[in-house]
Specification:
enzyme inhibitor activity; mainly alpha; Butyryl-CoA Dehydrogenase, subunit A, domain 3; Pla_a_1-like
Length: 199
Amino acid sequence: MWHCSFSSLSLCCLFLLITITPTDCYLISPPLLDWINSTCKECSDKSADINYNFCVTSLQAIPTTHVTNLQGVGIVAMELALENATNTISTFEKMLSSKEFDPFAMNCLRDCLELYADAITMLVDAFVAFLAEHFDIATVLMRTVMDVTSMCDEEFTEKKGELTLLAKENYNLFQLSDISSCIIKQVSSVPSQLPNVSS
């Protein structure tokens, strides 16, 4: 598993991701908005699963520290994915503690909680791989996170008529991971502008 290769940096990068999650927004300049639009257009053209409007709306939440290049936009997309996964885990835990659901739904929630815990590890490792310019590894990890959301949805669909709890959160994480994967591929095709990551 890729986690072993990057575990020495994971805690540092998890702290970095948590402390710079894009919650403090500012007025986006027209050039940056054009850049976001073109990035989302390219990604939605390449992947039928990426929703262009979702992409634009999400990437507009870019803090001032990340507006200098495409790599920064990629970091923001991964931060958003981590924030989504972290918040969803908290929601799973609250739902499990409430005991308001039938045994089948409770088992699904437990399974999804484990899946999302793995997803957080993969997101942090993808961030580390991205900064280290191991773009192929970062892409594989982001695609695996996408699989996590599908697996969580499938837990509920095993029972006919069962509603998929937190379908919106699964959808959002799927989108953000797909967008991140697309940007990683774009970054890998241009000269490096990423900072060096030392152990």
